[in-house]
Amino acid sequence: TMIASGKVEDRMERGQAVELEANWDDDDGYYVFKHNDVIDDRFQVISTLGRGVFSSVFKAVDVRDGKDRREVAIKIIRANNMMEHTGMKELSVLQDLNQEDPEDRRHIVRLFESFRFRGHLCIVLEVVGNLNLRKVIAKYGDGRGLAFKAVRSYTKQILTALRHMHKLGMVHADLKPDNMVISQELKLLKVCDMGSVHRKHELSELDETRYLVSRYYRAPEIVLGLTKKDCPLDIWSAGCAFIEMYTGKILFTGETNNDILKSHIEVCGKVPRRLQRQGIFTGEHFDSDGVFLHNELTDKVTRKRTQRSMPNLTQTREIYPLLLRPHGKHGTKTDAKLREDLSHFANLVGRALTMDPKKRITAEDALKHRVLC
After folding, report:
1. Which residue numbers delimit the Protein kinase domain (predicted)?
2. Contact (Cβ atoms closer than 8 angstroms) between residue 176 and residue 276
3. How many other CB atoms are found less than 10 A from the CB of residue 370?
4. Residue 15 pLDDT
5. pLDDT tens digits for range 337-367
6. Number of H helices, E strands in the chain
7. What is the spatial distance between Cα 42 and Cα 63, in angstroms, rounded to a whole number?
C-alpha cells in the first residue's frame, strides 16, 4: 500500500506540475510574472520593463552573484514556434555583434547568456537604464525636444551602432526611439531589440512586404515596394529619430502608408520618376503620369477613404525651419552659434532623409559630417 500511495502522490505531483505549467503563460503565450518569481533558480524578478510582439522583458537581479547581485534584463520569448525562431535569430545576431565589439564601444546592448525556462527561450541582457529614447524625449524634452548638445551626442551614438551593424552585413529594420535605451545619467545610448534584424542574404525576403519598420520611421523604398532593400532603410529611420529628438515631435505621421508617403513628399520633395517605375506598389500611390493619389479619410465614423489626385503636392515643410521653431527652455531666440550648428544638423538630417536610397548618406560618412566632428 505504501508503494501504491507513493504512485498516487507521484501522479498528483505530476498533475499539479501540469496544472502549474498551464498557469505559467497567458493565452497569447507570454510568460506571466508572479511577485518575487525566481527564474532558473537564479534571477529574482524585480519589475516588468515592457512587452513587445515577440517577448516580455523583466528586470531581475542575479541572486547567485554574491554581494554584487548584478541587475539584468531578461527577455522571455513567447511560447510559439514563430516567436521562438525570431528569438533564436536575435540571439545569434547579438552574439555576432558583441563578438566583433569586445571592448563594448559600438553602442549595441550586451548579451550575457541564454537558457530555457518553462518552455521559453530566455535571453539575458545588460540593463543600460530604465528609459528608452522615446521616454527620455517625453520626460526631459518638455514637449519641445532635447538640448542640442544631447541630440548631437545621441546622433553620434546611433550612427556608431548602425555603422557596426552595416559593416557586419546586418540591417536593423526596426530602428526607432523605443529601441534605443539610455543610461541613468543620460549620457550613454545603446541600440537594442534585434528581433527584426536581417542579414544581407535574407534581405530578398523583404521584397514584397509593405509593413517593414514601424510606420513613422518607414523609408519610401518600403512604401513603394522597391526590391533590393538594404542598409539605407536604417539611415532613413535614424534621420526621423534625429529630428524628433530636437523638436520633440514625430516628423512623418499618418494612419496608412499612403498618408506617410504624402508626409514624406511634403518634407523631402517629389518621388523621382525612376523610383516610381521601380516600385511594385507604386500604382497604389501614383497615377500613370506620376501624380500622387491620396486616399483621404472622408468619414471619421465609417473610416471611409476617397482617392484624390494631388498634382500640386510638393515640398512645403523644410527641415531647417522646423529646427528653428521655439525650442524648450532656450526661449524663442536661437543664438548665432546654435543657428549655425542647426544649419549643419539640418544638412545631415536632409542627407539621411533623401528619397533615393542609393543617394542617402551612409553611417560611415554621416559620422564624418562636420556637425558631429
Report:
1. 43-372
2. no
3. 10
4. 41
5. 999 999 999 999 999 999 999 999 999 999 9
6. 11, 13
7. 6
Say which CATH topology domain 131-372 has.
Transferase(Phosphotransferase); domain 1 (1.10.510)
Residue 8 has pLDDT above 60, yes or no: no
User: What H or E segment, with its residue span, contains residue 340?
Assistant: helix 336-352
Residues in the chain: 373
Q: What is the pLDDT of residues 272-307, one digit of tens each?
A: 999 999 999 999 999 999 999 999 988 888 888 899
62 classed as catalytic = no
Give 305's strand partners. Answer: 297
Cell of 235: 539611415
This prediction has a pTM of 0.90
Classified as helix, coil or strand, 70 is coil
H or E element: which one contains 49?
Answer: strand 43-51
- What are the domain boundaries of the chain? 38-126, 131-372
- What is the C-alpha to C-alpha distance for residues 285 and 315, in angstroms, rounded to an integer? 17
Check 10, 96, 174, 356 and give the catalytic one.
174
C-alpha pair distances (Å), 36 with each of 41, 48, 69, 160 = 12, 12, 15, 38
How many C-beta atoms lie closer than 10 Å to residue 2's C-beta? 6
Is 89 known as a binding-site position?
Answer: no
Cα of first residue to Cα of last residue in the chain, in angstroms, is: 82
Task: Write the class of the CATH domain 38-126.
Answer: alpha beta
